[in-house]
Write a structure and sequence with these properties.
Blueprint (H helix, E strand, L loop, with lengths): L4 E5 L2 H8 L11 H8 L4 E8 L2 E9 L6 E9 L8 H15 L4 E7 L3 H9 L3 E6 L8 E7 L1
Parallel strand pairs: 4-5
Antiparallel strand pairs: 1-2, 2-3, 3-4, 5-7, 6-7
Bound molecules: coenzyme A (COA).
Length: 147
């Protein structure tokens, strides 16, 4: 039977700890970098646990003040991928944002984050723009979804 995934709101220190396990992020942000981003804004910091082990995290905040909630950072430890951890985090964030009165989730990701893009397409996000970079795989892709 699949292990239960438990998602909880956590202090930023816990998200920073999980962030270090995301091999794709070359220079993991220190705590201060996270705090600076969402200072003075409504935020959501969550972690997902599989058998009590922290498996993934997500940090979002009210970046635009336009009724959307911005999903800023997300990652799942490679040991726990493909088990629905991202899906559980996204579902939690979406329900939370809906309850808080937000109408959309916005997200920006890189062209080379293929698993993330696959999730976003499968689960109802629309492409809204591309911020081009010198290498096509580094292009930033903007997406959003009504909630
Ligand atoms: C993207 C990432 C968070 C996915 O986490 P995960 O827990 O393995 O994802 P899930 O198991 O919840 O899968 C959710 C959906 O994502 C997509 N997906 C995930 N892994 C995939 C893969 N290897 N190939 C294709 N699609 C994939 C699928 O649509 C999947 O839905 P399904 O199971 O209904 O088919 C993880 O790969 C990661 O941390 N990558 C590096 C960091 C990163 O890219 N972060 C996002 C930056 S914005």
């Amino acid at each position: 039977m699949a292990q239960e995934i438990v998602v909880k709101e956590v202090p930023i220190e816990e998200a920073v700890k999980v962030n270090v396990s995301i091999v794709e992020f070359d220079e993991p942000y220190p705590k201060e970098c996270f705090e600076e981003r969402y200072k003075g804004k409504e935020k959501l910091i969550i972690a997902a646990y599989l058998g009590n082990q922290p498996a993934g995290y997500m940090v979002g905040y009210d970046k635009f003040g336009d009724g959307s909630f911005y999903c800023w950072m997300a990652g799942v430890n490679p040991k726990f991928r493909g088990k629905g951890v991202l899906k559980a985090l996204m579902d939690y964030q979406e329900n939370w944002a809906k309850k808080k009165g937000y109408k959309k989730i916005k997200i920006k990701t890189r062209n080379n984050r293929r698993e993330m893009l696959a999730y976003l397409v499968k689960y109802g996000f629309w492409f809204t723009g591309v911020d081009p970079r010198p290498k096509i795989e580094d292009n930033r892709i903007m997406l959003e979804k009504d909630i």
